């Protein structure tokens, strides 16, 4: 069976540059696998495709079937790693207009912003429909999902009564402690566990990602198969033989050359949320201590008509990584017109995917000529199996890349600053001192 | 009446830095208004909110009413400037789930990618519904919309017959020449004109943007009122009195300090496509000759859980511009819970917008402390009037900013490279020589 392929032949990197990174990469591999590096409390994801709780996995499948049976609407309440992974999978692998034409429940995401307008509009759309909710939060106290869950909990209890409501609320949370765990036990919600040693941005293969993905009708066995295969493939410590480590090493080399922005490009709009998920993975893992590549994303060819000029001819601080799907899901043939006014008749009989691939090749060459190092991650096709493989590829590469950069890829200390400020300004008890300081600055 | 407000008091800019830019800004103003600078063939947008063709404007409103009456689905075929403006308006100003609950026609965008999967899925969703189409292309030969239009034209003619189909196809194109203009005349489509002196990314107030916006039920008179007011406000040549020019000048100062990435942040998910539109405006206008700020966008607070760590603590190459809506459209109150497990009871009686605003203030202070210069563009509320004002603010600032940077803000020569390559690889007649060269490189 084919696997994901990584090509850096057009990144302008010399052989000896890669060779210099062989030993550092081997060391990063060792530190990661022997759990001797920074953030080693959060390495549960490395072996997760094998070590995961198979009993809980079966429960996910069973519960997803129940939800599909009794719900017209399924609401996923979570933010960051608690929704980006499942959203990426659902958008990449289901119908482009899933909520408009799926047989299964419509799926909405809430609790990932603080917009009253969004929440009120969402309440309008689901009015009168049968609903289930998956609230996803390790602690249960993260502001955005906690607010949304208060709203939906009270809505559900009013709509169904407390007894029936609790059968439609599913909590994915800490195994033992925390506000949501306590509430779930008190109310009698079905719960799923977020492992202690898997951070939010690495949690897609846990129930965090898998329950919503299964409700969307996707095959989570195949996703785990792909992840497991990737785990095996990327165990190889030799940089020359490990494509995943090559992605990490090449990023590091480009960064040292001053390429401080990585633009992840796709040619299928359905991959948009894979890029959003990827931004969190790399931005949060590496953007610290004044370091890190700035992750940006474009949807081609759409964004060639917005960012194309910059990529071709703006500042040369960037490199481009293309997510290329070898074999498109559906395709369409271009037909002849009697009169060739638009000048497209030379494409008669060709398919849209043929045109899309030629666009990709032409753009790649143009950007290389424009001084943009080009990387390609080729995925044989976008199905559950390769989705799982791709996700693991990025996760493992991120761990290695973070160690090569010299950061702790598994923490996110920077996000505490704004949270503290926000709590203080909101008047949360315990933040009175900071509040006083901040009020003077506003 | 209140207007848009620009605040750069937390950008770390000294008074004399601004003073140094007074004369260059006055000069840029002069060059722009006297049309003596680079790209002066494309300055029609400057006076457009006053000089626009009022007769055609009335036709837009009339046609929009007809489309609303006889169509369940309205498809906008266009790429780049031919769809980003209308999409930005529709998402910012209508219901968050417009296509799921609007009384008017569902609105879909096509021809902005080359994905056969997307197009096939779209055909499935609209099956059996009454359709109108707006194809938007100056030339009619741009690959993406031309392919999509071939597909939909033949679909419509099969569905309705040639005679009826032509009454459901609206072409927004060149006034006199080009493939689409010729076809429209031959087939008898209703047409709308794209002015010769308004480039794609500046075309939102022309029929390019306004027809789809009117079909969505929005008040285009108010949009033009806002644009007109902005045109008056930002005629002032004195930098000290012109907030729009201050945005241009401050960007220029920050760029010279090494702040090469601008992150446009919003706190309302409905503003997402305003940022996409803004990326094209600034990326395409300034990203040339090896220069230009790299435009990036984040949706807060969502993306604080992905990009927040980087913004707080990554490389300090960036500054942040916040689109702040003073008064949110809808709001929701946070209610007390008997048992305060999630610890949110201190917010009882507060609204989500209150929390959202405190988040904004807390984040702003945290990022400033983290070394991120902060700009705020405050919009009194997000309605048609202020939307028009905001768009014009950004357009005028872009023209001035481009002249301050020393580029031609109104061309996009860089996008020719990839187009040529693509045509050659697709086998387009006339590109045989280039094709031979490129094939050797693949």
Automatic annotation (TrEMBL), chains A, B:
Q: Which family does it belong to?
A: Belongs to the GPI family.
Question: Matching Pfam families, A to Z?
Answer: PGI
Catalysed reactions, as listed in the record: alpha-D-glucose 6-phosphate = beta-D-fructose 6-phosphate
Keyword Isomerase (UniProt):
yes
Task performed by this protein: Catalyzes the reversible isomerization of glucose-6-phosphate to fructose-6-phosphate.
Chief site of localization: cytoplasm
Name the PANTHER family for this protein.
Answer: GLUCOSE-6-PHOSPHATE ISOMERASE
Q: What protein does this entry describe? A: Glucose-6-phosphate isomerase
EC number(s): the record gives: 5.3.1.9
Which species does this protein come from?
Answer: Marinisporobacter balticus
Q: What are the entry keywords?
A: Cytoplasm, Gluconeogenesis, Glycolysis, Isomerase
List, alphabetically, the GO terms of the cellular component aspect.
cytosol
- Record keywords: Isomerase included? yes
| Entry's Gene Ontology molecular function annotations | carbohydrate derivative binding; glucose-6-phosphate isomerase activity; monosaccharide binding
Q: Give the annotated active site.
A: 284, 419
Which principal EC class is assigned to this enzyme? isomerase
Q: Give compartment(s).
A: Cytoplasm
Q: Which GO terms describe its biological process?
A: gluconeogenesis; glucose 6-phosphate metabolic process; glycolytic process
Superkingdom per UniProt: Bacteria
Pathway where it operates: Carbohydrate biosynthesis; gluconeogenesis; Carbohydrate degradation; glycolysis; D-glyceraldehyde 3-phosphate and glycerone phosphate from D-glucose: step 2/4
């Amino acid at each position: 069976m084919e696997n994901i392929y990584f090509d850096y032949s057009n990144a302008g990197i010399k052989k000896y540059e890669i060779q210099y990174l062989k030993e550092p990469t081997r060391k990063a591999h060792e530190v990661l696998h022997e759990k001797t590096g920074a953030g080693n409390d959060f390495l549960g994801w490395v072996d997760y495709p094998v070590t995961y709780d198979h009993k809980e996995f079966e429960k996910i499948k069973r519960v997803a079937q129940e939800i599909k049976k009794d719900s017209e609407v399924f609401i996923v309440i979570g933010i960051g790693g608690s929704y980006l992974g499942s959203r990426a999978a659902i958008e990449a692998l289901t119908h482009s207009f899933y909520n408009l034409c799926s047989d299964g429940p419509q799926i909405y995401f809430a609790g990932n912003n603080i917009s009253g307008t969004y929440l009120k509009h969402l309440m309008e759309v689901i009015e009168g429909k049968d609903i289930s909710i998956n609230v996803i939060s390790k602690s249960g106290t993260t502001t955005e999902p906690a607010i949304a869950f208060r709203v939906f909990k009270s809505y559900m209890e009013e709509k169904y009564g407390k007894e029936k409501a609790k059968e439609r609320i599913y909590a994915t949370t800490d195994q033992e402690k925390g506000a949501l765990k306590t509430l779930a036990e008190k109310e009698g919600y079905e719960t799923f566990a977020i492992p202690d040693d898997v951070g939010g941005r690495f949690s897609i293969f846990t129930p965090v990602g898998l329950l919503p993905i299964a409700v969307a009708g996707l095959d989570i066995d195949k996703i785990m198969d792909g992840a497991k295969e990737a785990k095996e493939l990327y165990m190889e410590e030799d940089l020359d033989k490990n494509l995943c480590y090559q992605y990490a090493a090449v990023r590091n080399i480009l960064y040292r050359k001053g390429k401080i922005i990585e633009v992840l490009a796709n040619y299928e709009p359905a991959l948009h949320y894979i890029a959003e998920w990827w931004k969190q993975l790399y931005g949060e893992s590496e953007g610290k201590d004044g370091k890190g590549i700035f992750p940006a994303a474009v949807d081609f060819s759409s964004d060639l008509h917005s960012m194309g000029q910059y990529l071709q001819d703006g500042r040369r601080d960037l490199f481009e990584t293309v997510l290329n799907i070898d074999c498109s899901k559906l395709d369409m043939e271009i037909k002849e017109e009697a009169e060739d006014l638009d000048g497209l008749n030379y494409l008669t009989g060709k398919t849209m995917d043929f045109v899309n691939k030629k666009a990709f090749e032409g753009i790649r060459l143009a950007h290389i000529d424009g001084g943009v190092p080009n990387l390609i991650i080729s995925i044989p096709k976008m199905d559950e199996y390769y989705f799982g493989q791709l996700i693991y590829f990025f996760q493992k590469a991120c761990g290695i890349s973070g160690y090569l950069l010299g950061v702790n890829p598994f923490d996110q200390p920077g996000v505490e600053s704004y949270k503290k400020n926000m709590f203080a300004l909101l008047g949360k008890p315990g933040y009175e001192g900071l509040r006083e300081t901040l009020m003077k600055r506003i």
